[in-house]
Structure to design on (230 residues):
């Protein structure tokens, strides 16, 4: 089994976070510094920072957080304002994907490494919906170009749904998650994002969740989410 899958299945952290630990040289396998893509056997001794991977409560945890501006979506304890310390959940969890520090709204947290991996695969076309405020009135041309795809980071973004909400506010539904995608798309078209809020991930919505608060997913929400991921 690959090392990042092995560690994610312990509930210690996600595959992406495992890759960061590997890059920092913090994981060893049988005394040797781990390299990316390493394979692990059942009898191997895997250490993180020289310590065995802690035993964690494997009862599945699925949370929805209405993230405030200023909270950073990382499990790195040395980062001020990291999301794990902010939520302060009694067992180990990690964020599903990211919202940048200046953005707010819905983010999911879990100890289920497999759900993270399934949701992060953009080819599965999992919808995420945002409400975005920009610095000037939105034109029909802007809506058309945003929906058809914008060149950022040397790629053309996937076609998406974009709707005018108010004079300088639009809603957008994405099925991919490039770094700072919406901000970069707007900048490429001459607009600056003033506020960015995620209001939906697949079937999960903010509903009445207040900013800064979190809740456990309802049974019907979770069953629908898991069914769509299979």
């Amino acid at each position: 089994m690959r090392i990042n899958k092995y560690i994610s299945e312990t509930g210690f952290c996600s595959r992406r976070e495992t890759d960061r630990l590997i890059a920092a040289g913090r994981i060893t396998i049988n005394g040797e510094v781990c390299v990316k893509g390493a394979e692990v056997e059942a009898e191997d001794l895997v250490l993180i920072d020289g310590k065995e991977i802690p035993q964690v409560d494997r009862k599945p945890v699925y949370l929805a957080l209405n993230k405030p501006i200023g909270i950073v979506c990382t499990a790195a304890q040395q980062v001020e304002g990291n999301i794990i310390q902010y939520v302060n959940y009694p067992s180990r969890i990690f964020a599903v994907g990211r919202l940048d520090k200046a953005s707010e709204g819905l983010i999911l947290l879990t100890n289920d490494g497999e759900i993270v991996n399934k949701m992060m695969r953009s080819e599965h076309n999992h919808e995420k919906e945002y409400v975005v405020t920009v610095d000037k009135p939105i034109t029909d041309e802007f809506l058309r170009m945003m929906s058809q795809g914008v060149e950022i980071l040397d790629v053309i973004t996937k076609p998406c749904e974009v709707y005018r909400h108010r004079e300088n506010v639009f809603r957008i539904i994405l099925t991919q998650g490039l770094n700072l995608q919406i901000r970069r798309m707007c900048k490429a078209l001459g607009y600056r994002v003033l506020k960015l809020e995620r209001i939906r991930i697949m079937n999960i919505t903010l509903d009445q969740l207040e900013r800064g608060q979190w809740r456990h997913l309802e049974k019907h929400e979770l069953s629908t989410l898991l069914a769509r991921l299979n």
Remarks:
- The radius of gyration is 19 Å.
- The longest helix spans residues 219-229.
